[in-house]
TrEMBL record:
Family: Belongs to the Nudix hydrolase family.
InterPro entries reported in the protein's UniProt record: Nudix_hydrolase, NUDIX_hydrolase-like_dom_sf, NUDIX_hydrolase_CS, NUDIX_hydrolase_dom
Protein known as: NUDIX domain-containing protein
Taxonomic source organism: Streptomyces virginiae (Streptomyces cinnamonensis)
Domain Nudix hydrolase: 4-134
The keyword Cell inner membrane is annotated on this UniProt entry: no
Cofactor(s) named in the record: Mg(2+)
CDD domains named among the record's database cross-references: NUDIX_Hydrolase
Superkingdom of origin organism: Bacteria
Alphabetically ordered keywords of this record: Hydrolase, Magnesium
Entry-linked Pfam families: NUDIX
Length: 147
């Protein structure tokens, strides 16, 4: 099947206690999954600029900056009815343990402890996120194409 390339960027926010801020989505195209804030990179936008924009749009936070690239990965799914192969940049930053300023009724979020993240029992994007955060690599890791 031919897939349209799509580029995205996300940011994992770690609280001072090590909890991770994630969204829990349940949609007809992908089903239930947890993922960091972020989304598609607009034309002419850098992955870092995408993360800043998406954080503002999804949480209302404007005071966080991507600190470093944790990993990249690709995955296939259907986005708005179009089969895509998405290449994602996953950044990490630290921030206060707080609620989003903007809260859309269809977006559910939670701060998850490292223990809860490791035993989630529901799909996590990227799938190896809990392991990467438990043993943070010195250099960004390319995870490749993951299901």
């Amino acid at each position: 099947m031919m897939r349209t390339p799509r580029h995205a960027a996300r940011v994992v926010i770690l609280s001072p206690t090590g909890s991770v801020f994630l969204f829990r989505e349940d949609n007809v195209e992908v089903g239930i999954h947890w993922l960091p804030p972020g989304g598609g990179i607009d034309p002419g936008e850098s992955p870092e600029d995408c993360v800043r924009r998406e954080l503002r749009e999804e949480t209302g936070w404007t005071d966080l900056e991507p600190e470093r690239l944790l990993c990249t990965w690709e995955h296939d799914f259907t986005h708005q009815g179009i089969p895509v192969r998405q290449h994602e940049h996953i950044f990490v930053t630290t921030g206060p343990h707080r609620e989003p300023v903007l809260e859309a009724p269809d977006i559910h979020w939670q701060w998850l402890s490292p223990q809860r993240l490791a035993t989630l029992g529901e799909p996590l994007w990227p799938p190896r996120l809990a392991n990467l955060l438990a043993d943070t690599p010195a250099e960004p890791v390319h995870l490749g194409l993951l299901a």
